[in-house]
Amino acid sequence: MKLSDKITKLRKVNGWSQEDLAEKLNVSRQAISRWENGTALPDANNILQLSKLFNVTTDYLLNEDYSSDNDIPCVKEVHNKLDYQKLIYKKRFLIASLLWLLSAVVWLIQAINWLDVFYCVLAVVNAIISLVNIILYEKSKKKEIS
Q: Could you tell me what percentage of the chain is helix, strand and coil, using 3-state DSSP and rounding each to the nearest 5?
């Protein structure tokens, strides 16, 4: 995809008119039009500003072989690492959830066998504490990933 097409696409995805983009870059609307028509190219400073505005890399903007940032080898590697981390965290969450469920079931069985209200209350408290721990653990892991 050519730079002109990428600028047009990214501008439209963001819901900006040519005038809006021109204001953000402090250039004329005609300059944006020429970039999008392919009759002119933005200078290096404007390429940097475009990459920041559109939240893409300059490599993506300048290299016609890349149809998205994910096509850039180093970006692919980072995404693969993040996907692997997310998979590990999902497995940990599943294991923690199963342990929580097992613990709650054991407590409830014991409480029922003993026919004791105190142990029933302990079983419920144990289940709630376990659930809160799982939720807090998952929230902390989501913050680490992002």
A: 80, 0, 20
